[in-house]
Amino acid sequence: MPAITAQTPVLLDFYSESCAPCRRLKPVLAALAQMFEGRVEIQKINAGNHPELAEAYDVQTLPTLLLLHCGKELWRGTGFITQEILDAKLNQILEGMQ
């Protein structure tokens, strides 16, 4: 179970190995993990292996990204999202938390 009550924001990546946009997002999230190290934790969740989590978070499409902080959903995105857009969105949300 993801650390949804963590003090550090957690970005959940609901994905499937057979999902082409999910595979395109993989290197983007790897780069973001380095860029936001210590500020955002990224956790990948295979929706097929963990359908109970996908249902609990109302995941309807893959990929779905959820940014959580202290158990609260701060942002949700679906489909392939570019590194530039994710970088800007994460920075905007983190700045607003200060």
Question: Which strand order do you get reading across the main beta sheet?
Answer: 2-1-3-4
Residue share in helix: 25-40%
Shape: globular
Number of strands: 4
Q: What's the story with the biggest beta sheet? A: 4 strands, mixed
Q: Average the pLDDT over all residues and give the rounded result.
A: 94
Q: How much beta, percentage-wise? A: 25-35%
- Helix count, DSSP H or I runs of 4 or more residues: 3
Spatial gap, N to C terminus:
27 Å
Q: Please identify the structural class as seen in this structure.
A: alpha+beta
Q: Any idea what the radius of gyration is? A: 13 Å
SSE ordering: EHEHEEH
According to CATH, what is the topology?
A: Glutaredoxin
How many domains? The number is 1
Poorly predicted runs of 5 or more residues: none
- CATH H-level name... which superfamily? Glutaredoxin
CATH architecture field? 3-Layer(aba) Sandwich
CATH class division: Alpha Beta
